[in-house]
Structures
1.
Amino acid sequence: GIQVEQSPPDLILQEGANSTLRCNFSDSVNNLQWFHQNPWGQLINLFYIPSGTKQNGRLSATTVATERYSLLYISSSQTTDSGVYFCAVEDNAGNMLTFGGGTRLMVKP
Amino acid sequence: DAGVTQSPTHLIKTRGQQVTLRCSPKSGHDTVSWYQQALGQGPQFIFQYYEEEERQRGNFPDRFSGHQFPNYSSELNVNALLLGDSALYLCASSAGHKTYEQYFGPGTRLTVT
């Protein structure tokens, strides 16, 4: 099956700093989503981005499908950005999402 | 517009027992997928239901079974519970069963003692 790797696994930032999270995947994909999992376990949709670039406030994402990676940018980080960020992909063969291991982000005040 | 809902929120069971978890999809969605998330890991796909049929299954034993009802809601059943079944169980819904954005519910946290 498709492999999804996220980096870095852990990230500690000072409030106001910028960061880039990376997601590499091993095969072509039909779907790629970025999620933020809050401390209560809820997965919150950030971006549905199988290709191209999208922006939503302080967050933006870029997927380069031909090179099999996606980037999530967080600018001017806030303490409420803390949590785990997951990248998940759906390959051409099926309709299940395969998740990466996540990036655990802590933003300090 | 109601999002994906799941019940119960928390559940404690004993090894060998059976459990049923429930999910109602987001309004307008007809496809439900179930995922298991062990502590410290990413969610893993269990199976997906569309048109009341199991369309795809991940690498989970037959102890895990499911059902989808005509109103698109779904149940996940786990028989002969093991300690290793302790996890957060997440339900996701989408409009269609191929290549559509999935939305997740808040999850059911199952503890097996």
2.
Amino acid sequence: DQQVKQNSPSLSVQEGRISILNCDYTNSMFDYFLWYKKYPAEGPTFLISISSIKDKNEDGRFTVFLNKSAKHLSLHIVPSQPGDSAVYFCAARAGGTSYGKLTFGQGTILTVHP
Amino acid sequence: GAGVSQSPSNKVTEKGKDVELRCDPISGHTALYWYRQSLGQGLEFLIYFQGNSAPDKSGLPSDRFSAERTGGSVSTLTIQRTQQEDSAVYLCASSLYRGPIEAFFGQGTRLTVV
């Protein structure tokens, strides 16, 4: 069962425009959500996170929005830059005994064209 | 070291052989995680260490997989009697605090079972 889903395998955006990456989840026990960026042959790099008690978190060009009622989160990158081209993973953590485990989506390949 | 270090970076092994994958976490990080990414898939949780103990090993796919951590630092993931479906990139991550918030990943070990 895929508890975290990224339904768009890829996204192509023009430099300077907004990139919006989406993620849906099914487990209502998730209390923390994270976004990672991954370049080929490298490990994922932490980007930004949000607690389930918030609906928005911003860090520079990156903003994450959380809609708990819809079990949906999104990552906005404004403005997009060619160096942002990478695979983006959303991940979620449940509380309780599963607090050490992140459940990842399948990833979305973002391509930013100059 | 400055980041999470994994060795070897690539490993090709024959089916049925045992392999050991090593992870050196960031100095001072108490939590350590193992994930794997099979071709075209998202990251799959394997095991989580807090110090030298593993509160959550629910992701280990079979009893051929085991992991240990010594001295609250280095961890070794061992796969016995490797099978072709074990081929994947095995990623290690560490974090300063309990739980994977803002975990930092290594570059991974690409395991190919032939």
